[in-house]
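Dear H.,

Thanks for agreeing to be a second pair of eyes. The structure we're designing against is below in token form, covering all 207 positions.
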């Protein structure tokens, strides 16, 4: 699709950088220990770095979203789902106070915003919606990890909250290419428009 500069005009657009954290992307942490392929993640983070720089230059605020888990806030549904799936150890990912929760390769700067969440969607149990509306935001550009989980959940919730949703398809990743591509295809059918980092940067430069 052709991305118009007006689709993501800086005055009413935010960039959501989702879950780029050690446990999800860094060598030696949870997903690496689980044997997940990190090459797609590294590539997506490199393009995310490009998007963050372009956003700041264009006057678009980057919002750094990360999941921080604690035993006392692990939901009943999450614990039971993990137990049924044989993944009980997955609950302890990105635990508060551990290096696993820290950002990986990306760091908020002065003027950037941060959101701490408990589960997949950046909107569930947070004040993100109110803060975005207070800033006059109508369009969201999503990037980060993972396409099929937290990016997906955030995109759907954003659409339900009346935001125009654009996903930087080459700046997000799953742990295998097929899952990533399937997630983008499904989202594009229902609630979000996949675009490229180049498309976004070009639109912001034109705006």
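And this is the sequence the design step returned. I haven't edited it by hand at all.
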């Amino acid at each position: 699709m052709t991305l118009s500069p007006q689709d993501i005009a800086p005055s009413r657009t935010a960039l959501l950088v989702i879950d780029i954290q050690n446990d999800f992307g860094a060598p030696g942490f949870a997903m690496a220990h689980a044997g997940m392929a990190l090459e797609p993640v590294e590539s997506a983070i490199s393009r995310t770095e490009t998007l963050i720089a372009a956003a700041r230059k264009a006057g678009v605020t980057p919002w750094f979203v990360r999941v921080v888990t604690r035993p006392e806030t692990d939901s009943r549904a999450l614990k039971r789902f993990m137990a049924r799936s044989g993944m009980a150890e997955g609950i302890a990912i990105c635990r508060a106070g551990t290096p696993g929760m820290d950002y990986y390769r990306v760091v908020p700067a002065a003027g950037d915003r941060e959101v701490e969440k408990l589960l997949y969607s950046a909107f569930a149990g947070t004040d993100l919606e109110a803060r975005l509306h207070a800033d006059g935001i109508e369009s969201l550009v999503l990037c980060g990890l993972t396409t099929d989980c937290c990016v997906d959940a955030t995109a759907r919730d954003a659409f339900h909250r009346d935001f125009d949703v654009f996903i930087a398809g080459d700046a997000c990743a799953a742990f295998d290419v097929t899952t990533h591509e399937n997630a983008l295809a499904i989202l594009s059918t229902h609630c979000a428009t996949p675009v490229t980092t180049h498309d976004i940067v070009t639109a912001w430069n034109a705006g």
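Two observations from my side: The mean pLDDT is 95. Strands lie at 13-18, 61-67, 113-117, 139-145, 164-173, 193-195.

Warmly,
E.
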